[in-house]
Design brief:
Layout lengths: L1 H24 L4 H15 L5 H12 L5 H39 L12 H19 L4 H16 L5 H16 L17 H19 L6 H19 L4 H15 L5 H11 L9 H12 L4 H33 L3 H26 L10 H17 L4 H14 L1
Length: 406
Amino acid sequence: MKDSTKISKLRNIVFLKDVLIITLTAFGGPQMHIAMFLERLVEKRKYITKEDLLELNSLCQVLPGPSSTQTLTAIAFKMGGPKLAFSTLLIWLLPAAVLMTIFVLTRSFFDVDIFRFIMPLTIGFVLYAAFKMFLSGKKDLLSITITVIAVIIGSTYPYPWIFPILIILGGFLSSNFGNHKFIPNDKPIINVRWANLTLFGSIFLIAVIVGALTKYVNISAISQPLLLFENTYRMGSLVFGGGNVLIPMIITEFVEFKDYLTMEEFQTGFGLLQGIPGPRFTIATYVNGMAMQNFGYGPLGQILGCIVGTVAIFLPGTLLIFFVYPIWGQLKTYPIVRRSLDGIIAAAIGLVFAAAVLLFIPLVGKVDGDISVSMAIILAAFLLLYFTKIPSPLLVVGAVLAGVLF
């Protein structure tokens, strides 16, 4: 018994080390993160199977919040329970949050141009992830059709509500028109722990009420941080589709509507975001810190703003995945869920391909004004990942060094 406990603890330590390595090299958005999860946690370490990764990622796609963060948290929950999941979450988000805080405090010292080769590299990573996911998925006519539909619609209409709708549509088509063999299951779901869902809803309600009250009772020392928490927590509770969807929400809420920071300040932060590893939701760390700076707060107030932004944006999605994952094993045994999974996974694969398209569109002409440079980097990244065993962190470091040199 003691030996098995020691082995389990040692395995968890190795897992956390792998998470740290991914954290420090996971540039780009959630699709690139999934590519790195696939490469290191599935193919190299075999902590989980490809099917498990696809299932968990599909589950997180239909939940509000940071999908790659929730996927990684769910993987850790599967391996070692809530303690390992929480430790994983901290390791995953803290480096990026700390870097964004440093950017707020020393924003004028960074040249974002050194990161200009990161985006085409990211697209190559995303294409690799999509291709590997497609190879591991079902190849029947219905699944391929769902994937193609998701690619076309997801890349043509990249709106926040499109992503969950496509996931649900894929599940509906698979459930009603797929060829499935399953064992009927009418057992009730047991051991549901409502605490996290209750806490999620309670914080949301309290934040809205307190945010409304601060408009009438302006206590400057606390009202502005409370308003920022309410704004950010609300966005974290309602955003579907990951970091790329959060960006326009922040622009609307913080820049255009409430003037917490200027568009130039936001664009600087967004540029810096492209050059740091970790979850893209840490853009909320930056914009909350900048908002506090523009409110007239000094360094301590700006750090407080960064902490408020980090907690508020990640807390909703974390509470939801802590509620849903423990009962996921029961949920997926139900016939309607089981029949839907193939379509959900097919739609998720299509959305990864669509993400590559969406990332490529604004890149045209951005790298040295020559699209051939971008295409060469994308193709090289894909081929190196597929045909060689060169670690992805080395490719990222090479792209940054190329930006510095050229």
